[in-house]
Amino acid sequence: MIKPLLSVLTITSIMISCKPASEPATSEKLTYPITAKSDQVDDYFGVKVSDPYRWLENDTAEDVKKWVTEENKVTFGYLEKIPFRNKIKERLTDIFNYPKYSNPFRAGEYYFFSKNDGLQNQSVIYYQKGLDGKPEVFLDPNTMSSDGTAAVSLLGFSKDKKYVAYAINQSGSDWQTIYVMEVATKKLMSDKLEWVKFSGASWKNNGFYYARYDAPPKGKEFSQKNEYHKIYYHRLGDTQDKDVLVYENKDKPLRYYGASVTEDERFLIIYVSEGTDGTEMYYKDLQSNQKDFGLLFAGFQDNYSVINNIGDKLLVQTDAGAPNQRVILVDPKNPKKENWKDVIPEKPELLESAATGGGKLFVSYLKDVTTHVYQYSLEGNLEHEIALPALGTAFGFSGDKEDALIFYTFTSFTYPPTIYKYDIASGKSDIWQKSDVKFNPEEYETKQVFYNSKDGTKVPMFLVYKKGIKLDGNNPTLLYGYGGFNISLTPSFSTSRLILLENGGIFVMANIRGGGEYGEKWHNEGKLLKKQNVFDDFIAAAEYLIKEKYTSSSKLAIQGGSNGGLLVGACMLQRPDLYRVAFPAVGVMDMLRYHKFTVGWGWAVEYGSSDSLENFKNLYAYSPLHNIKEGVEYPATMVTTADHDDRVVPAHSFKFIATLQERYKGNRPQVIRIDVKAGHGAGKPTSKIIEEQADIWSFMFYNMGINPIYK
């Protein structure tokens, strides 16, 4: 689901200060569109649940499109009246405008990386011969649409590195179309594969394995439940109708499948999952006469990931019998647990990732939410820790067996992403590419605190602010969280957050339960029937910030996206007195029907489904859509979503805001900002990011009575 960065700028021509707004924003009372209601009522185990805005689920219907237009008129009409909105947009445009790079990787004689010159809507994929070669454009998604909403990703190279399969996503949708290009000549081949979702391209011989769905009915492309995922083998040059069906299960429509071939093309691994947690795995030895797939690991209690193979054995990362994860060596012919060999046993810290490169094993751990990386031999002997420049987040650390160099990126709240070249033999790191953000990190500080949640659980939280800040309860503060799906929020840099920090604000990130920061135990304490722990942790974070006088309820905003949108929706309803502003983004708001759209069924392992009585009671108790009350002073709220979001369909946000506008009687704005030709977030063009972030900061400052002045 969703598995997503602060300091003063040294531009002397711009000075920023905070003053009270001339008028309180609450003096305005908005008139919202009248949203038609139906008499739709559902029966859940004898409980009658009204769903009067069910018609908003049909996102392609003309009356829904008209409703979207009318809601956007109100929202943008409100935003346009904020006097400093354009200045914030100008400021964001200025500070976004610096080159941004991805980690390079080697494919044959070429190195590939992506680069955004600064304000390009999409990053351009470059390649160069050798480390000292001249970079050339390989694929430029900015030329693939007139408005910058096409996004490109490289899916996989043939073993001889002669060909690469790549995917194009349009307008933010999860749907992909796969194409093939000859690397040396950049010649586009005839291959075109459609209705692909959640897939790579794993090559074997003259073709590759990939996953797809059957074509959905016209008009239901972005809302219909996705069923019967399948694995196909595509031979280079064939039309898609000739692709060979490799794996399916006609008895289990609600499963995801993935295919991966080991680096030496010996083993084909089939991953099976019934949701976002828990794996079943099958294998086939492609060098033998093995006809049928063999069961490697039965599902779906634990998670497994094949790192690589060592001869006829498989190197696997798993949480089976190890909530903090471990690396094991498995003989696929004798895969029972008693035959596993520990290569790297479980430790007190979370083993976040493991990968091979240059004949070594690189293992990344999280210790109190910061990254520590170690180099091991393939036999599991520790060789050394890789020295990182500070406490923060590092990622990369993978390559082919023949690689002598690999690359990784390091970042933190006040450390813009910096790419390092790592020499495997010497263990030495050198800067390959540094972000040229014009600001002084010495002006800011980051603090990690641990606070007590409702049940006494200690929860970590990061705070970032300007040095010398006064703890007088008057600092505009944004509290961000996620809390689900075993996803860890780690320190990272965000250009957008500079707007808050340079205006004397505080950015706060709470590492609440449901995430993966402390392994599977931390995750399990915030899922299914324990989901309320997640909301309690977030509420306790807000209470801590107010008690310690970092901020006050009149200067506190909360923000989260996707599962984090659910978090914000639930918390703004449970404790509306704590926050002045709420930003639920692309949230899962209808917890009784989420599993009926696109891939929502895959989240039932995280949330539970309203199809069972026990889970229905739990979901109904916190579902944001179903817990909006009349007569309550809710925070000023701006819901954000997009018309092409086929992950968390926009109906969640549509129905939530319609209900909120109906029941809320106060003066604080309750609006929805609906992006067009955009999706769940991935691949969003820079122009749309800047516009949306400018609106978020403008809405927040305006409703807190803060007036940022740019001279």
Features:
globular, 8-stranded mixed sheet, 43 strands, disordered N terminus, Rossmann fold, alpha+beta, single chain, 5-stranded antiparallel sheet, 711 residues
Compile the SSE list and pairings.
Blueprint: E1 8-9, E2 16-20, E3 41-44, E4 47-50, H1 62-80, H2 85-96, E5 100-101, E6 105-107, E7 110-116, E8 124-129, E9 136-139, E10 150-157, E11 163-170, E12 176-182, E13 187-196, E14 202-204, E15 207-212, E16 230-235, E17 244-247, E18 256-261, E19 267-273, E20 280-285, E21 294-297, E22 304-310, E23 313-318, E24 326-330, E25 341-344, E26 350-357, E27 360-367, E28 370-377, E29 382-386, E30 393-396, E31 405-412, E32 415-423, E33 428-434, E34 439-440, E35 444-452, E36 458-466, E37 477-480, H3 498-501, E38 506-510, H4 519-524, H5 532-547, E39 556-561, H6 563-574, E40 581-585, H7 604-607, H8 613-622, E41 636-642, H9 651-663, E42 670-675, H10 686-704, E43 706-710
Parallel strand pairs: 37-38, 37-39, 39-40, 40-41, 41-42
Antiparallel strand pairs: 1-34, 2-43, 3-4, 5-7, 6-7, 7-8, 8-9, 10-11, 11-12, 12-13, 14-15, 15-16, 16-17, 18-19, 19-20, 20-21, 22-23, 23-24, 24-25, 26-27, 27-28, 28-29, 30-31, 31-32, 32-33, 35-36, 36-38
